[in-house]
Amino acid sequence: MAYSEKVIDHYNNPRNMGSLPKDDKQVGTGIVGAPECGDVMKLQIKVENDVIVDAKFKTFGCGSAIASSSLATEWLKGRTVDEAYKIKNTDIVQELNLPPVKIHCSVLAEDAIKSALEDYKKKAAEAK
Amino acid sequence: MKFPIYMDNHSTTPMDPRVLEAMLPYFIEKFGNAASRNHQFGWEAEEAVENARKQIARLIHCDAKEIVFTSGATESDNLALKGVVEMYKEKGDHIITCTTEHRAILDTCKSLEKRGIKVTYLPVEKDGRVNPGEVRKAITDKTILISIMLANNEIGTIHPIAEIGKIAKEKGILLHCDATQGVGKIPVDVEALKVDLMSFTSHKIYGPKGVGALYVRKKGPRVRLVPQIDGGGHERGMRSGTLPVPLIIGFGKACELCEQEMPVESKRIAAMRDRLQAQIMKDLDESYLNGHPTERLPHNLNISFAYVEGEALLMGVKEVALSSGSACTSATLEPSYVLRALGVGSDLAHSSIRFGLGRFTTDEEVDYTGKRMVEAVKRLREMSPLYEMAKEGIDLKSVQWAVH
Predict the structure, then answer these.
(1) Structural domain range at position B290
(2) So what's the pLDDT on residue B334?
(3) Where are the alpha helices (DSSP H) in B294-350?
(4) Best label site of A35, B176, B195, B291, fewest CB within 10 Å?
(5) A33 touching B, CB under 8 A?
(6) What is the pTM of this model?
(7) A110 — contact with chain B (CB < 8 Å)?
């Protein structure tokens, strides 16, 4: 199967690959997927004044999974928490030109975003 | 070095130029139908086909008359299983095979099950081999056929066919062997293996695609088959259809070359394979060899790299043609059923890479491939949340994953 140029670009030059301190109150962490299924995504956001100032990912998975999470971090940066919820897997599919068999990678990325946002909100609520 | 590098010789092999040379006269000049009995064109084609049949027979130590030409190993497997089941249905309705067989066997068995045939799928041991004792235990008075492959196409593990053959003989049950991956790579002798039927194909041994053979024993016992393709009664009535003369000539030449060169070639390839294995495993912790360490085809290497996914790995070394057991590279979206049958966890099955060396593989290509694999695995591990967690001392098996 041939990959789109955008997938190849994210695979070769992943954006924001790495980790943020997960115990930091400003950091939300989402880990989704399972090793048995062949993909696990870890997505982290750092929020200041309701704005996502940094995002990082680490992904175990195919090229499309890596590209989906890499793209997600790019899109997250600069958004408010509410705006971040608006990122949909279909946007990722469109941007990366994912074939039908790779749609689940984009779904996983959306799940990872939601999971990181929920984690952040939970921490923020606990801190109040 | 020429790119891309071909390291997927279990899938298919390039044709040997000497094979092509042997085939060329049979397209335009000597184009006759081997079944034409009344003129020079037919005689010439028939003679060439019979010569090829002898070359093929010599490689597996059988009589030329015991070779039935087919379109390839998948057809040979179908003919062997369906042909035997239909011919011997009065005797019984039970087949024994194993879980790591090629799809051509497993899917044929599934199809036979729909017709009421009972099939036992034997498990394999951790090293990928069928235990002959399990074969013996699975035999019932209704068993008419045992079908076990010579060597596995993913992990290269060689089954103890001779031992299984002994049991089959003792019980008077026919033994079929899908030897697609083994013929031409390791010595194969149908007498020593005690097989009654054996499938193999030309394109795995540097011959052309589109032709294969089924060995059908003529004596002790004389095996009979119900043909699956009816027509002009070619191939002793077992497989009708005009013979693809140029392909058969190529197949014959390919077998002759394998027979002549195997003793030197298999050692050379095994040495390169061992070097590749050593190079990769020396530099990468948590890389695991799949299959039997020694009872293995000389050109096969199958390794799982923990914490990285196979398809992503292939993407990282895209200038080398390789294959992976990852679900993402399969049509079924399931990780390799062969590795799963060995008890390899799904996570490691997703992480497996199959290297298939061949006649035209060079030392330089092997070294390059090894170096690039190590780089790619290291890079992807840096990107892998699982590797990070493992390094932090988290037991990945204890994590509650949301299986999707």
Answers:
(1) 5-9+262-396
(2) 80
(3) 310-316, 337-341, 346-350
(4) A35
(5) yes
(6) 0.95
(7) no
Do B198 and B345 lie in one domain? The reply is no
Q: Tell me the pLDDT band of B400, cut-offs 50, 70 and 90.
A: confident
In this structure, the answer to whether residues B249 and B307 fall within a common structural domain is: no
Phi, psi values for residue B158, rounded to 5°: -95, 125
Distance CA A28, CA A15 (A): 18
Residues of B with Cβ-Cβ distance to A35 under 8 angstroms: 345-347, 350, 386, 396, 401
Same-domain status, B201 and B325: no
Percentage of residues in chain A having pLDDT higher than 70: 99
Give all strands (DSSP E) within A1-128, no chain letters: 27-34, 39-48, 51-60
Give A119→chain B minimum CA distance, Å: 16
Q: Do A62 and B335 touch (CB under 8 A)?
A: no
Q: So what CATH class is A5-123?
A: alpha beta
Compute the distance between CA of residue B218 and CA of residue B236 in angstroms, rounded to an integer.
11
Number of domains observed in the structure of chain B: 2
Domain termination residue (choose one: B257, B283, B307): B257
* ipTM score for this prediction: 0.94
Q: What average pLDDT does the structure give for chain B? A: 96
pLDDT beyond 90 at A67: yes
Any long-range contacts for B390-397 (C-beta under 8 Å, 24+ apart)?
B390/B306, B390/B307, B396/A35, B396/B347
Q: How does residue B403 score in pLDDT terms, banded at 50, 70 and 90? A: low
Q: Is B227 part of any domain? A: yes
Using CB atoms within 10 Å of the CB of residue B41, give its burial: 0 to 12 exposed, 13 to 18 middle, 19+ buried.
Answer: middle
Question: Which of B257, B281, B297 is the endpoint of a domain?
Answer: B257
The residues of B annotated as belonging to the active site are 328
How far apart, in whole angstroms, are the C-alpha atoms of residue B101 and residue B103? 6
